[in-house]
Amino acid sequence: MRAIRRFTVRPVLPPALAALNDLALNLRWSWHPPTQDVFAAVDADLWEQTGHDPVRLLGAVGRERFEQLAADETFLADLARAEADLETYLTAPRWYQRSGGGADGSGPRAIGYFSPEFGITAVLPQYSGGLGILAGDHLKAASDLGVPIIGVGLLYRHGYFKQSLSREGWQQETYPVLDPDELPISMLREPTGEPATVSIAMPGGPDLLARIWVASVGRVPLLMLDTDVEGNPQQYVDVTDRLYGGNSEHRLRQELLLGIGGVRALRAFSRITGHEAPEVFHTNEGHAGFLGLERIRELTVDPAGPALDFDTALEVGRASTVFTTHTPVPAGIDRFPRSLVAQYFADSGACPGVPVERILALGSEDYEGGDPAVFNMAVMGFRLAQRANGVSQLHGQVSRGMFQGLWPAFDEAEVPIGSITNGVHGPTWVGREVFELAARAGVAPDSEHVDAFWDVVDSIPGEAVWATKRVLRQRLVEDARRRLAKSWTKRGAASAELAWIDSALDPDVLTMGFARRAASYKRLTLMMRDPERLKRLLLDPARPVQLVIAGKAHPADDGGKKLIQDIVRLSDDPEIRHRIVFLPNYDIAMAQPLYPGCDVWLNNPLRPYEACGTSGMKAALNGGLNLSVLDGWWDEWYDGDNGWAIPTADGVEDVDRRDDLEAAALYDLIENEVAPRFYDVDASGVPTRWLEMVRHTLKSLGPKVLATRMVRDYVRQLYAPAAATARALNSDYAGAVDLAAWKRRVLESWPGVRVEHVESSGVGDSPEVGALMSTRAFVALGSLSPEDVEVQLVHGRTTAEDELLDTRTSLLTLAESYEGGRHRFDGAVALDSAGSFGYTVRVVPRHELLASDAELGVVALPTG
Ligand SMILES: *Cc1c(COP(=O)(O)O)cnc(C)c1O
């Protein structure tokens, strides 16, 4: 029988327990063990059964139990303490307030952070993988630092899928319905009590409506748009059905909702709650990029706005927008048929009044090798944001190469895409026992003085570290056995067939973790390149290794599912199944015991396709050692002693051969370095040389891999400068009007800018180190004046083909002006190192509100 209607009855708590509701509705509990203890004390069994879900726990507890608790002095005291702690956390000044909002007190009053997915806790499953987890960690770290971020995302009725396995090891997907009433979110309501909604005009149909849910991530509100509302036809209700499902048009609708609906939701949120409006907008990957178009609409045609022209509005929008790109794989870039985008933005479409041809131009691949028929969300992202970054140094470099077509006049190194390396949220990912170890050494678990943690690393005795590591390994083994039993039952095994699971994995064996999406570049199956050799490593009588593997394939990716099946089949082999396990449904709940339980975290992507990767950082914070290809973050922070680098066969074209070489190198490392060190124990059973590496890992990586470091970097390098430029433009928009007019004038006049003649003196033919080279450059500026440009002496080493490398720039200054817009610029540079030296002179536009020399894309170099 089917119900004709369903609703969720919210529990009524006795007044003495009202604080439980507040604690359940602020997700800070998810990274605060003392608050989790309070929920566990409500009913330990239900806490386990609900998968540590406070909202469902409170819904399941009976009245009688509540009455007992309301009379339990000990419980009430713990509850009051947790409530007071939350109150302090939410209101006391934190880093951002103490530092006056960033380094120089110029930080934005609020930042809108847009992302298609947010991975905050297992009980709010609105993420698929790394991008979402990163967004969740960004919000949590912002909350810990007091950075005034407002998250903006979608609420997917089915989230991502749940993974299970068929008997044959083929991935099965299910999409359980999430009932918002059972999630830790509340609906944004107008003062009248009506749900707050936003709407977007759709081609040939009624408006798309969405309501707004708010999740509280500590101090950070997260707005989530949901189209499951009365008044929407079914095809619109389905817009927020699931994450990354459906065809191109479906995705376009989701992205319109996220970007345009997201800005409208922020406005509603500010209007209703009085919250500061964002001064800076951050788009986490291209999917949310349409937010820039809605802001242009507000600034140009919205009756409540300042009625700027398009170019001025574009400057205002760009100044206050930050774009982070996340993929080094061209196929991973989000692109739509141009005609489809045209249809949705036609006259009375999603952004009425904003000219559709200007919109199309923003996303057009109008560079060499571009496809004229597509609308590219990353390209639009760069054009709508003055500041852009990749997510590790290597990824920044790869991105500069990938998008150089947008700045063809500049060398790759000068493409204005920086990098901020990702980080992970310590309190979410570090095992509680690890914090307890630090506490025994005198560092309070929620100390804001993070350096104190690294300071005590050397003072904790090896026995204590090793005992803790065993506890963590044991916990992982138990969790894995539970998951295996469940999975095998689902795969159709009879209970008599499950006995072996009781001895699957061993808490005293070197444990290696490997969990990631089954995208082909991640090479899930590299380790089984030589199955016999792998078997020998697993079954080594003296130094065995065990592997815990997990990962989901995208539902449409049969190639990825095949990789999973290969791994599953291997791990089904009775000879090795106690040493290699595949755990279905990799998610936050699995990840939390997984990282602390591993001794080694393995990662072997095809370099350089891993933009950053964060799972190895989580392992490192728990005293795990990384064994990884030098890609993403590991390329940057591997120092020779904090783990191992798997040598890569870069440049070997034959993919099979490359995989063979890299797999062999991996086996060699495990056999000759990793396992011998792990099993080399002293008289009390402690592997001292291993622990040396663990301590060094914590001290060298700990301070770098935290999301608080990442968020501080975003504040200092991107948010505060963006706010400063935006303020310079926005006070009365005169700055933006001027900047837009200046850009137009410079671009129109640029054909008249030339470097006509360059003279140097003081160095002769064979100069020595220390010689001073004087340079005079004669330039023609046409109708521009010397203040509009910068004349630069660019110098560096040279290749045999006279290409300049590792260039540095010195300014030449105006010395004399002549008739007809010609000028002489002079300067000098000291030759401070031996070897090849080359230089050139160039002219670039100069304005104090530009963020990079390449911003206008034009440069003048000597001709001939
Ligand atoms: C950390 C994490 C990821 C991302 O890890 P990568 O190293 O970027 O692959 C994905 N899923 C879950 C559940 C995680 O916790």
List its traits.
864 residues, alpha/beta, Rossmann fold, 4 domains, ten-stranded mixed beta sheet, six-stranded parallel beta sheet, 28 strands, binds pyridoxal-5'-phosphate
The total domain count is 4
Query: How much of the residues is beta strand, in percent?
Result: 15-25%
CATH-level-2 architecture of the largest domain: 3-Layer(aba) Sandwich
- Class from secondary-structure proportions: alpha/beta
Amino-to-carboxy terminus distance: 83 Å
| Largest sheet entry | 10 strands, mixed
Please tell me the overall pLDDT: 95
Q: Please, how many helices?
A: 29
User: Would you state the CATH class of the largest domain?
Assistant: Alpha Beta
CATH topology of the largest domain: Rossmann fold
Q: Give Rg in angstroms.
A: 29 Å
Bound molecules: pyridoxal-5'-phosphate
CATH H-level name of the largest domain... which superfamily?
Answer: Glycogen Phosphorylase B
Compute the number of strand runs: 28
Low-confidence region ranges: none
The dominant shape is globular
Level of helix content? 25-40%
